Each structure stands twice: as C-alpha cells, then as structure tokens.
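Hey team,

Sharing the ATP-binding cassette domain-containing protein run so nobody has to redo it. Sequence (496 residues) first:
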Amino acid sequence: MGRRLQPAGVPGERLQGDLAVRQPAGRARDPLLHVVLRGALRRGVRVFQPGQVGVRGQAMSSVVSLQGVGKRYKVSSSRSSWFKDIFRPGKTSTHEFWAVEDIDLEIERGATLGILGRNGAGKSTLLRMISGVSQPTTGTVEVRGRLAAIFSTGAGFNPEFTGRENVMLNGLILGIERDEMLARMGDIEAFADIGEFMDQPIKTYSSGMRSRLGFAVAVNVEAEVLVLDEALSAGDAAFKKKALQRMYDLRDSGTTVLFVSHSLGMVQRFCTEAILLHKGHLVTSGEPEEVVNSYRELLENSEDGKKARQDEKERQLEYAVDHEDEDDTPFRNGPPAPAAGGKVPTGEATVLGAEILDGDGNPARAVASGSEVTVRVRLQYGRDEEKSSAVVTVRNAAGLPVFSTTTGDGGATLGPRSLGERASVDFAFGVPLRPGTYTLDTAVLSPRDGGTCLSRAEAAATLEVVPPEDGHPVRGLVDLPAEVRVLDPAEREAPG
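Structure output:
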C-alpha cells in the first residue's frame, strides 16, 4: 500500500495502488457523513461515490475481495416479542438492522489495513464475514489464500474440547494435514505458554488464556491473511510484547493483515492504510493518519459529540493504562514501516542504536519527571549523502507522539557523509512528562528527491519516567512549569 489516495472525481486521474472502497447507493446517507467526506476530500483522502469502479492496481493481486457485501439482522422490539410472534402468524414485531451495507473492498497481498469506527460501526461484523465466521446477507466475499483470525471473544474454539484438541481442529479447518499440525504443536505450545491447561477444556480458560492460545495458533500456521480483532485486549504485558513482535515480523514478511484496535496510535504505527466505517457504511480510506483525522472529525460533529469524544478519550486512556508497562513496539530498523509523512525508508542508512543518558552523562533506564536527558543516536550511512538530518520522537504507551525534535531544530547539521561512515548525534531535552513508560523512535532523513527517509528505528530505546524528586503529583500528560500569584485588592482594582 503506501501511495496516497487521490480525491474523488479528479479529471484525467487514474486510480493506482492497493486499496479500493465504494460508498453505498440506494438508501439515504447519514447527514453526518457529508461533514466527514468534506474533511476527507480536503486532506486528499480517496472517497468513492455510488457507481464508481473502486479497483486499485491489478485485480489478480487482490488477496481479499468484497463485492456489494452487506449483513442484515432481524431485531426484536422487546425480549418477549419473538415469543409472541410464534402465536401471531403473519405478524412480526421485528425490524431489519443492517450492521454492514453495500461494501466493495479490494485488498492487495502484503497490505496492512487498519479498520476504524465507533462501537457498532460494523468493524467486527466485517472481519467475521471476511474470516468466514459469519455469512453475508448480500454480496460476495473472496479470500485467496489461507486465512487465520484472532477475535477477542475467542471465536472458533469449542469450549468442550481441550486446548490441544482445538489446535488440531483449527488446523483441519485451515486445510493443514494432521502430521503437519502435530509438527507445529511444539511452537504453538511454547508461544501460548499456558502450561498444563493445554490439555484442559477451553471452558476452564480465562479470557487471557483463550487469547494467548488463539494468537499462538494464528501466527504459527503460515497464513497469507491474518485478521486481528482486538487481538491484544487480553493477556499480560509480557505476552503482549511478544505478540507485538510477531505481528511486526509477519507484517514485514509480506503477510496481509487486517487490524482493529482501540488504540489510534497503534493503528497509525502498525498499519500502512486504513478505512473508516460509520453505521455500517464505508466512509473514507487512505493513510492511517488521514483516516484517524476523519474519525476524530466524525466524533466532533456527531449529535452526541461530547459523549463520543469522552468515550474515545476513556478508551485511549484505558489502553494506555493497560499497556503502560510495555514497549509499544519492538526495536525495528527500516525499511519497511512507513516513516513520518508516509515515506517508506529506503534502507540507505542504518540506525545502529539509541542510548539514553542522565544529566551526568551516565546510561539511564529511568529518570524523574522534570529532569534532563540526552538521547545519543548512532548512525551509519549506506551511500554518500551531501546533507541529512536525524529525528527523535518520544511516544507514550498508546503510541501517540508527545515530543519530536530534529538536528535542524537545534541548529546542528549532518554535513557531507561518505559510504560506510558512522555518526553520533546527541539530543538533550527535558522530560516534564507524566510517570510511565515511553518509547523513542529515531529516523534519518535526506532532503534529496523532495525528501527521503533513509532509515527508521521504531522503539529504538525505552524510557521509564518516575515521579518527580520533590514528590509533587503530575496531574496531566505533561508537567509544565507554572507560576501562581494571588493578587491583593489594590492590584485587582488597578487598571489594565
């Protein structure tokens, strides 16, 4: 993926790339969508209108194809309505509810797609239809290749069977021979790490254990398509870190990944493309940052906007609290993850490492909020570079950037560098941050060709911020210096 989606209706433009969507026709569109669509078009996000052909790239390269897909449920007006209907032939108190409606979607092999939307938008319903757990009411779903899915609810497990029996059953469903599945059992057991519970019925498992086993199966069956629906909502910090590492490894090896998460930061960091669902309709698609902006705009303009924004803040805070003891991502050197602005690293430089030093120049793993640190970044060039710059970004546990600086911000330059030459850069700054775990991303940029990312290392270092030395509470995300003075009556009455 990675190419910017073009605005709808641009004359003479041909759609290129990996992802395609189309807006539903026929039924009345939610008025709120007009606000979101206008904002999306301003940002250059691709919005498909009724009747447009929504295909990007070569059709045969699509690994997942949805055509006119919809899912309809019949909903009773009350708990007893369905029972009363039995005795009233020809009458019904149910009404139709479309959880997903008229979605066209083409996803190319190797894509990493984030799916955003409020609760009830149709995200899980869409993934369940793609995974085959649920059948569409209208349209067709085609998946070319082996698909493995991980749902937070543990869907796909028989509660009466043991963990080992469920592993074998899942393998048979995926078309894997018994002997091959037995050969993989050791890796699955080691990854799940649930001990003797492997031979106990699933109904005795906690939600975390079901999540661990489901994840272990999905990432060890060499699936071409991996579906993750809040896959890391359960499990301890150590397992989540291990799972994140495997997710990045699979993504980087070319596995197609469809990803739903409450963490907007994680979607921005992990995915190369995103789509936004609203009331079962597909609204926009594009680079994750752009679609996240559309999602926030949708929240701002909804009728219950205040409650929607508060709910979103609470979900982000809950995610951050649950993950505050984890690294948000493992250390990785570019390519292939997109860097800032969606640029994919070329690999023409390497971030050798990043080290955090305290105020005395000693290596530090933890520092007090409000203290000074130095981040030392070590680089090596893979070609001659006339001019380049280094970047450091600090992210919180939710993956959101809280601070970023470059060599240019400090008036420093990385002048001409030769092939194989190494360089070190010190970034010194204060950390008036809320206590918690932070990760540092680093990148090397070049101004040539309109701006090129030479290398990017995500979570190159981890910084633990502890409470301030004087013990005062940090009530917000940052602890900004402030002066407070109470005015006497004469000062209050003084003009201007």
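The first strand starts at residue 19 and ends at 22.

Ping me if you want the raw files.
A.
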